[in-house]
Design brief:
The structure is a single chain. By secondary structure, the chain is mainly α. The protein folds into two domains: about 35 residues, no CATH class; about 130 residues, no CATH class. The strands form two sheets. It has a three-stranded antiparallel sheet, with no helix packed on it. Strands 2-5 form a two-stranded antiparallel ribbon. The protein is elongated, with a radius of gyration of 20 Å.
Length: about 180
């Protein structure tokens, strides 16, 4: 903290309160540490973002460099191509992912909400696909990401087609949400 004297001065003003956080002590962290460590240098990179708690999967790609709210998770994908990221978005937002979650994780909260935490998502399978399948999925995801397409009848139909395509990649029939 000696490298950041102004931050230390500010934190010292709140030291008593910060030292009172039992969960920080139990995690063997310093009194001034935040609970969820961040990597500010990564904020500018494209990242997958999703809410911690939601009824349905709501994964999106942030390419604006935004700082992510504390009730969301995020993941940078520096070694993945745009097509691989599109496939991950398609799978993560699919009814397949919802069914996978309910069968393998089963953590339901109030009003049917789910917690989309890392320990539940790290095993979510991403299928191997052919180049043409990847191209088709990428095209659908890009079309759905267009702001002027949100909520339109064609977007709803395209979302259903993408969901069916993802179910097909896993050898499943279309899944009802």
């Amino acid at each position: 903290m000696s490298r950041f004297p102004r931050a230390l001065k500010y934190l010292e003003q709140h030291r008593e309160r910060l030292e009172g956080r039992d969960y920080v002590r139990k995690a063997r962290r310093e009194w001034f540490e935040i609970w969820v460590p961040q990597q500010p240098a990564d904020w500018a990179a494209p990242k997958l973002v999703w809410p911690d708690i939601s009824e349905d999967p709501r994964f999106f790609l942030d390419e604006t460099g935004s700082i992510v709210n504390g009730d969301c998770y995020w993941l940078t994908c520096p070694e993945q191509s745009a097509e691989q990221i599109a496939l991950a978005l398609a799978v993560a937002n699919s009814s397949f992912a919802l069914r996978y979650y309910d069968m393998c994780c089963g953590n339901r909260l109030y009003a049917g909400r789910r917690r989309f935490i890392t320990q539940y998502l790290e095993e979510l399978p991403i299928p191997n696909v052919s180049a043409s399948e990847l191209s088709d999925i990428t095209g659908m995801v890009e079309e759905l990401r267009r702001p002027d397409n949100h909520g339109t009848p064609s977007a709803v139909a395209l979302d259903a087609a993408l969901d069916a395509a993802i179910a097909g990649l896993f050898g499943m029939e279309e899944i009802e949400r």
